[in-house]
Design brief:
One of its GO terms (molecular function) is uroporphyrin-III C-methyltransferase activity. With 252 residues, this protein is α/β, with parallel strands linked by helices. The chain contains 8 helices and 12 strands. Strand 4 and strand 5 form a beta hairpin. Helix 3 crosses helix 4.
Length: 252
């Protein structure tokens, strides 16, 4: 009987293969099975060993290649067959990546699990857009929320955004109108600066800016698609001011 393999929950980072951890790159080059999300860039998958089996379990809004329970079962089945399995996820596996659920399912079956963190989508995209999520003059609190939670309108977001705070919303493209409406109903100023970062840390990255009240129109008029993050807070305007100042100094 083959020795049971290990399940590695690996963060692929925001998309740029140069932002992988050394450990993640090594595992990609040695794993027999790689089970990956749809948001993992092809250039990262190209780091797999030539004979590795690549299995896509891409998820889209309301449409999953495999239900989560079936993904859990797939990971366990392959490990029980004696194969080391890399479960490759965009960003970090424990931030809106369901890594916790997969680790629990594996441990319940007696399968060894190792978690390799990745640069989160929030950290990677914000850095690529030169947005400091915290800043001594603008923000000392950062909150991450999912924009596709069931019962979004009933979620308590009071106090997550406002002066001195930064709110980062994952998976919020489709629900941008509800998000803006909800935050303004909770008292956030319509003029609060926002940024939408599409394809963060990738060659086709776009950074779109506006105000909270105009967020739905911004997403629609610019045809924003996933993967995209919405960042709300005063920090989203600071780099714009710096860029404008540098441009003025250069022209002087």
């Amino acid at each position: 009987m083959a020795e049971t393999g290990t399940i590695y929950l690996v963060g692929a980072g925001p998309g740029d293969p140069d932002l992988l951890t050394v450990r993640a790159a090594r595992l990609l080059g040695s794993a027999q099975i790689i089970v990956h999300d749809g948001l993992v860039d092809r250039s990262i998958l190209d780091l797999a060993r030539p004979d590795a089996t690549l299995i896509s379990v891409a998820k889209q809004r309301s449409k999953h290649t495999l239900p989560q329970e079936d993904i859990n079962a797939l990971l366990v089945r392959e490990a029980r067959a004696g194969r080391d399995v890399v479960r490759l996820k965009g960003g970090d596996p424990l931030i809106f990546g369901r890594g916790g659920e997969e680790a629990e399912a594996a441990r319940a079956e007696g399968i060894r699990v190792e978690i390799i963190p990745g640069i989160s989508a929030a950290n990677g995209a914000a850095a690529a857009a030169q947005i400091a999520l915290t800043h001594r003059d603008a923000s000392s609190i950062v909150s991450f929320v999912a924009g596709q939670c069931k019962g979004l309108k009933d979620q308590n977001w009071a106090g997550l955004a406002g002066a001195g705070r930064t709110l980062v919303i994952y998976m919020g493209v489709k629900t941008a109108p509800q998000i803006a409406e909800k935050l303004m109903a909770d008292g956030l100023a319509p003029q609060m600066p926002v940024a939408v970062i599409e394809n963060g840390a990738r060659p086709n990255q776009r950074v779109l800016r506006g105000m909270l009240a105009g967020l739905p129109d911004l997403v629609e008029s610019e045809s924003v698609i996933s993967p995209a993050l919405i960042v709300i807070g005063e920090v989203t305007a600071r780099d714009n001011l710096a860029v404008a100042r540098l441009a003025q100094e250069a022209a002087a």
